[in-house]
């Protein structure tokens, strides 16, 4: 009985006891969490992660010679988004609210997205096709388009399972497919790739349906709720988030350089905007806007093709800007500051809770230039005024026997430099631009981008044909004249790019002072005179008879004076004053007879006008910023290479045309042109013929000076062998009916030995060079430095734009002293003779007298009118106008060089030098010549201090509205 009453302890009882104990512990822990440590653990739960935040350092300032600030950095406000688990949940709602707040303040989200709509296109900030292709490839690969195309096309074609398994040819094929993948296809691919249907807040079942849709179909669904602009904004931000993920947990900049009041508005709304925050960041400001833009340069985002190298240097490729031209580029490492970093705790909405560590920024160093901002502004303004006058107002110019048209006188340059240091005091290039447009995302509107990088060349050509009243143009392919069409002024390529092969269009970002190559025209006569004096073929007092034309048995057609004048017996000084072609042609022939074909070139090289082609390519000026180092003065070596290069096109056309040399009788054509469809053996056979042609141009300077040609029989033999081998590998149907290899070899050999070589070894080349024509093509900077070298007594200095580099406290880190590149050894008597000639050209009867007659300080100068090509007007071009000048003539301080393209006459650009002289000698004129009235007086505008001030060419609110309208629907 007692056993029955005793409570039985079984497994259920034990389980009950254990459960009671567990629940007791849980209740105790919950009480501890909530009541005792509630606030502490709540804060910990709110921490999403610890992260490092990079802070950009201000770039160093760029100053003019007197300390005026030409480039500086300002504090600005950026709107950022931090991608976290919590903020991601409401991303699209947050974007909508952010855009609404920005719209209320007249601003919008940054749009650095290279894929544009209306029409669909890519914008990579360049006209260079190679750069564009490389950027497009990198951009698309970063977004997985290479994987997509491999999986959908090449996997089956090649049988390979990975991209890494592709061979070189297959890899090239993949790149071709990527480039063929259109902007429109890319847009809809990204709609699908980023699953933008999430903006519709779909259910799980709806997501399954969307996953089966194409990007275009998803887009149609999105359009039922959102407009094009909103969808694109979603795409831009989703893309930015993904690109940032490559660099770790970093913020995405939604808006740069916000207005201060806009920043405060967002700071008040942060609790309602998960992931959104406001940060300060330095931005670049150019207080004098377009002044010295081509010298200073501008900033741009890091291009896709260079991102890896800049990441290795510590740059943030998503938001850091780098100098891409001018001093900003050349002195990037000096100007760039040291970044700061903060280690912070971030809450679930991406905002900083606490700072754990901070390393401050350190500004970049300052670069002080040799430029005088007042002189620079004067040079730019007078150049702009002259270009306006001759392209818009005074455009038709009648000369004896012909009419010229300066409608396309839309570009030019001025260089002002110290004669005895190489320091550049002013360097103007027109057209110009305001670098502020590139300093902040969003300021460069679509219309501005088009003007800078993708202009409407066809519309421009049509307008130019109308303005110049062109009846005919030259067919670029055949060389034949036909009724005027735009396609003859520009080459419209099959890939959509345009080649401005006649250098017609005025390019705002191009520095015409350092990058343009121009004929030095009659300004080169000073160098011809120097060579003659130094080589002893004449003296300053030698008289040469100018009867209006020069010729002899070796030079062919007579060389005449411009306008048909004749000046009788004249010496060097009068020949320079009158710009006598006859005098200098005679001098050129004397030099040829005494020293050979390179007689003038060897002196030009001493002065930095090009260099001996047997040397490695190099700068002859030493300038810090980008320049064209391909300048050339006629010489035997370059003449051979130029003739050879041009003949390679001619020989292909000749063999295709099937018309024999001299007789014109028909023969069976043979094609040796490049054809991508050719099999390797056939392509190699063609190349062997071309190599034999190139080798046939092996003409030594000694043979050329002695008027000795190649051995015709030897040339025939080498060419015949190449033709035999090529014909032997041709299919029977192609080989049948061809002429013998001997026939083709003899035809080409005759053209080389009797036509091309005759041109190469002719002294006519020296005569053309003696008056600044022919193969003479140099930069304006080289022309200026050559004159400076002569007038300072023969010392060629390195040209210099930078005076010194200082730290933020003003301490000098580097001082640039004049650097001598070459002592030419010019005789003092030669210098004096040339100065007398330069002075004579500014006196009555001289080419610049009309403009400079009232200027009280004695100057010297030389005008030049340079032909572009014989049929230049049918190419939309006309003659260059040049002027080189020095002042004071009795003790030269500065040299000025001016060029305006297509202005037709050198005399038209002389006023630019006068304006420069009036500004440079301003104090001397006031004290010594108080009654002199300046003809040109320009006042440097007050600098802007912020982007709230009006920026040249900028109408941000209006342009933003226009862009919004343009992006609504393709």
TrEMBL record:
Instruction: Domain (Penicillin-binding protein dimerisation): give its ranges.
Output: 56-355
Compartments annotated for it: namely: Cell membrane; Membrane
Chain positions covered by the region annotation Disordered: 943-970
Q: Which UniProt keywords apply?
A: Cell membrane, Cell shape, Cell wall biogenesis/degradation, Membrane, Peptidoglycan synthesis, Transmembrane, Transmembrane helix
Composition bias, kind Acidic residues: at what positions? 951-970
Protein family membership: Belongs to the transpeptidase family.
Q: What is this protein called?
A: Penicillin-binding protein 2
Question: Could you tell me which species this protein originates from?
Answer: Proteiniclasticum ruminis
């Amino acid at each position: 009985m007692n056993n029955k009453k005793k409570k039985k302890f079984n497994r259920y009882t034990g389980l009950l006891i254990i459960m009671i104990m567990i629940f007791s512990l849980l209740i105790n822990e919950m009480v501890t969490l909530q009541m005792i440590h509630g606030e502490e653990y709540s804060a910990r739960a709110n921490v999403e992660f610890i992260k490092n935040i990079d802070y950009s350092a201000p770039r160093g300032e760029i100053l003019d010679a007197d300390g005026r600030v030409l480039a500086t950095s300002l504090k600005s406000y950026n709107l950022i988004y931090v991608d976290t688990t919590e903020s991601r949940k409401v991303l699209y709602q947050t974007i909508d609210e952010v855009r609404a707040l920005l719209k209320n303040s007249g601003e919008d989200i940054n749009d650095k997205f290279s894929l544009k709509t209306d029409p669909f296109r890519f914008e990579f900030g360049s006209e260079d096709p190679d750069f564009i292709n490389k950027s497009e490839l990198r951009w698309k690969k970063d977004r997985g388009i290479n994987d997509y195309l491999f999986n959908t096309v090449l996997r089956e074609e090649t049988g390979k399972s990975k991209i890494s398994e592709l061979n070189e040819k297959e890899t090239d094929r993949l790149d071709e497919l990527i480039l063929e993948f259109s902007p429109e296809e890319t847009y809809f691919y990204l709609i699908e790739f980023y699953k933008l249907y999430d903006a519709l807040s779909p259910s799980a079942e709806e997501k399954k349906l969307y996953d089966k849709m194409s990007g275009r179909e998803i887009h149609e669904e999105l359009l039922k709720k959102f407009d094009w602009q909103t969808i694109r904004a979603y795409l831009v931000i989703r893309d930015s988030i993904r690109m940032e993920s490559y660099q770790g947990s970093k913020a995405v900049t939604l808006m740069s350089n916000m207005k201060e009041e806009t920043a405060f508005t967002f700071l008040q709304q942060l609790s309602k905007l998960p992931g959104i925050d406001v940060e300060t960041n330095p931005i670049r400001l150019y207080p004098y806007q377009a002044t010295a833009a081509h010298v200073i340069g501008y900033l741009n985002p890091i291009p896709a093709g260079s991102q890896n190298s800049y990441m290795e240097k510590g740059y943030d490729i998503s938001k850091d800007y780098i100098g891409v031209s001018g001093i900003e580029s050349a002195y990037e490492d000096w100007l760039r500051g040291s970044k700061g970093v903060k280690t912070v705790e971030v809450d679930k909405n991406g905002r900083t809770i606490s700072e754990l560590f901070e390393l401050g920024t350190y500004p970049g160093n300052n670069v002080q230039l040799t430029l005088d901002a007042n002189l620079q502004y004067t040079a730019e303004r007078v150049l702009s005024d002259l270009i306006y006058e001759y392209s818009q107002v005074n455009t038709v110019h009648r000369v004896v026997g012909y009419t010229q048209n300066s409608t396309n006188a839309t570009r030019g340059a001025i260089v002002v430099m110290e004669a005895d240091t190489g320091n550049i005091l002013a360097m103007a290039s027109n057209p110009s631009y305001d670098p502020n447009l590139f300093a902040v995302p969003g300021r460069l509107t679509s219309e501005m981008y088009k003007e800078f990088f993708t202009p409407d060349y066809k519309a421009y050509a049509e307008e130019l044909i109308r303005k110049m009243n062109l009846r005919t143009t030259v067919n670029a392919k055949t060389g034949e004249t036909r009724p005027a069409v735009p396609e003859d002024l520009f080459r419209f390529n099959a890939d959509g790019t345009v080649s401005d092969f006649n250098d017609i269009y005025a390019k705002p970002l191009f520095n015409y002072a350092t990058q343009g190559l121009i004929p030095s025209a009659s300004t080169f006569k000073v160098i011809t005179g120097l060579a003659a004096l130094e080589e002893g073929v004449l003296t300053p007092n030698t008289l040469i008879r100018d009867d209006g034309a020069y010729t002899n048995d070796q030079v062919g057609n007579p060389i005449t004076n411009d306008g048909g004048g004749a000046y009788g017996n004249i010496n060097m000084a009068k020949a320079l004053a009158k710009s006598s072609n006859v005098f200098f042609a005679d001098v050129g022939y004397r030099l040829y007879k005494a020293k050979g074909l390179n007689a003038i070139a060897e002196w030009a090289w001493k002065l930095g006008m090009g260099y001996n082609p047997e040397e490695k390519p190099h700068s002859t000026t030493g300038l810090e910023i980008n320049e064209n180092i391909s300048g050339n003065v006629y010489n035997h070596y370059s003449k051979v290479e130029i003739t050879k290069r041009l003949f390679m096109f001619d020989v292909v056309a000749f063999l295709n045309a099937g018309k024999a040399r001299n007789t014109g009788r028909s023969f069976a054509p043979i094609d040796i042109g490049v054809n991508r469809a050719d099999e390797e053996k056939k392509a190699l056979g063609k190349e062997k013929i071309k190599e034999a042609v190139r080798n046939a141009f092996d003409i030594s300077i000694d043979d050329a000076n002695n008027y000795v040609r190649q051995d015709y029989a030897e040339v025939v033999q080498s060419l015949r062998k190449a033709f035999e081998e090529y014909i032997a590998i041709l299919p029977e149907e192609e080989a049948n009916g061809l002429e013998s290899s001997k026939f083709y070899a003899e035809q080409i050999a005759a053209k080389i030995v009797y036509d091309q070589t005759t041109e190469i070894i002719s002294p006519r080349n020296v005569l053309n060079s003696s008056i600044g024509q022919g193969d003479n093509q140099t930069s304006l900077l080289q022309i200026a430095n050559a004159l400076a070298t002569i007038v300072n007594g023969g010392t060629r200095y390195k040209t210099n734009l930078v005076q010194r580099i200082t730290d933020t406290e003003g301490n000098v880190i580097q001082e640039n002293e004049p650097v001598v590149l070459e002592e030419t050894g010019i005789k003092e008597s030669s210098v004096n003779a040339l100065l007398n000639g330069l002075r004579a050209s500014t006196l009555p009867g001289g080419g610049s007298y009309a403009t400079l007659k009232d200027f009280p300080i004695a100057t010297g100068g030389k005008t030049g009118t340079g032909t572009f090509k014989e049929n230049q007007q049918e190419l939309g071009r006309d003659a260059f106008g040049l002027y080189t000048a020095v002042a004071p003539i009795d003790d030269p301080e500065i040299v000025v060089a001016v060029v305006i393209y297509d202005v037709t006459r050198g005399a038209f650009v002389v006023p630019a030098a006068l304006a420069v002289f009036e500004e440079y000698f301003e104090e001397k004129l006031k004290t010594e010549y108080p009654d002199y009235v300046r003809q040109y007086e320009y006042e440097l505008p007050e600098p802007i201090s912020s982007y709230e001030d009006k920026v040249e060419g900028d109408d941000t609110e209006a342009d933003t509205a226009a862009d919004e309208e343009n992006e609504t629907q393709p």
